[in-house]
């Protein structure tokens, strides 16, 4: 179908699957290099995932945290982009099979990121809400608002409380940020918008299987984040796992059960990988084993970067964390190394430089670890905002997000509480397998 | 199901169907009056329809032109709101039947606005795109962008040109604004985003059945608007009607046919009315006949305002235009008159004060008629922007829209070219009849 992407130029052709942090950085660094770069993504935009929870809770518009991929590279001559779903790769033929046809490559970079991991628990997957893409965050927003509307007209007290109980599963940064934002929504917005509801009937739980939230951060950060969450009214349940959830009742490992129609799942991720790689190259949580040059195990000209890559060393038996800085640093190094490979020069081994980590719980409440330096509270919150604002792609997004944040700060309000697409569990007619995020309705 | 909305208070109960310009103004004016107000709308937000075309063409985010209805009235004690679809009214029993159950009223106000009118042409309705709601505008945006992506990979020249031909039907303000915005998208954005496409292959047509565009405005405005459109490269076809459209080929009354997958229908509207009114009360284009007090013909305590109302007089045999100022003025007067009716006082007859009309074609290109004063061009464009900015509900929306417009003005760019929900003609599983705008996909 699409001949144009296979036009042979004199330069080696690098195909990059995925326009996340890693794919973007790699592509930028290949500007003006003697290569032909083709990026494939199932969306025509880059998603700034760290702020998805703000979209889900009505703090930001979806368009503020997304940026058209074509626009990022509009001045890059050696760049081509296609919206497509990659179905399979064939390392022997050096081909990618996609929904727009076959595509040849000389070098292939898998930068497909991660997807929600339900650890094989089909029932939980069926009834709980993930939040890894913009359409999923918008679905979540619609669900939250629709359940509030439904609670208003519900007379059965049990069903009513199940509409008003929110259970966030997983105490990593996403779970902490999401439960904090829900608690703030309850505190500042609900009393004004839904005076008919009693604010005490709305409950927010955060369920974490280990002993503390933000387990990857310092103990100080974990302890403080928990205190912040409790200050906001979140019931933090640590050392507790989810046993089952049937869409109505969530059962926990300590024996308690909560009636709820709102289970938000942020308890794990797994790599999103195309078919066709040898099973030897795949490790735990569906990630792709890479060496210090981000070369996929067993292949010379296939690479993986970011969340999908597992760079396992003796010091880091679990690989690197699935965060933007890892993906960006790997993208940067790989650009250099690809040129070395092309020129038969020696590549440089990748080393992760950990700049620190941070998470926000709510207004004036954040935690920051930078090496041995740790701080929490108002200043941490401003640092968190500044770093995230600066990391957003695009000047317009920065300005619009800044306006929204300043406005929210002074008004204690959130801008966008619209049910634009109604959330519904009815499974729509799908066009393609993996893309569980769309299906615009017919206007007829 | 919902008992709460039927709780009897000492005050007369006014049920308002629709949170458009008319419903909002009426409700505001009933603040602190001895009435109980219940507003019903199928969305939880008010839509600023005059700017829908900017959402469809990527100039504004959907959330900037919408505003949560609960928030508008958050300080209004006598106000209750429900998201619901009204199915039928029973004037004898004074009841509204809705998706959340039966609702009693003392006074009923129908402010349901209008929907796209395809004049019974089922095939055209099936294949062309309307733009009356936010979900429809977002579908349109997705369709436009997806067809550009598809054109990139299409080798058949006929199919390729049908993906790149845009036909807007109807030369009223919506059609003029939409075709102008498409022409600007072609001129300023496409060459940067799609360097592989030849800009000359993209064609924008505006088809109008009468002799001129903007027929409701002055001749000067019509002539100038046409000139502005042609300056931007729009092919304006006047005195031409659409004969048929099968999703591939649009046939026109002058014999010509255009291969196109993009037909945008803005050629007419009809009232959206609930069942249960006497046929005597319904007139042309499904509008409800009202007298000078906005009382529906044949009913004492049912009223209609805005687009759905037909206030026909000898001087205005076609009623008033379907624009925001009419709805707002009727809402304002009706608030006064409802209190008069309640107190058995004499109501005041409605008189429309025409403040003028305006339309924008593109950057620096707008037309304004204010009584005998007519002007076009840059100043008209600034007036258009100022009036629309000030009319937007909500301070945050005003600021965000202003930032977007200033940014677009200097960058010649449009912010939000994201395919967030994929457009697809596959008919999804629907929950309810009339609501053709949603179906969030299941995340599973």
Automatic annotation (TrEMBL), chains A, B:
Catalytic activity reported: a quinone + NADH + H(+) = a quinol + NAD(+)
Molecular-function GO terms, alphabetical: NADH dehydrogenase (quinone) (non-electrogenic) activity
Protein EC: 1.6.5.9
Family: Belongs to the NADH dehydrogenase family.
Keywords: FAD, Flavoprotein, Membrane, NAD, Oxidoreductase, Transit peptide, Transmembrane, Transmembrane helix
Organism, as annotated: Daejeonella rubra
InterPro entries, sorted: FAD/NAD-bd_sf (IPR036188), FAD/NAD-binding_dom (IPR023753), NDH-2 (IPR045024), NDH2-like_C (IPR054585)
The protein's name: NADH:ubiquinone reductase (non-electrogenic)
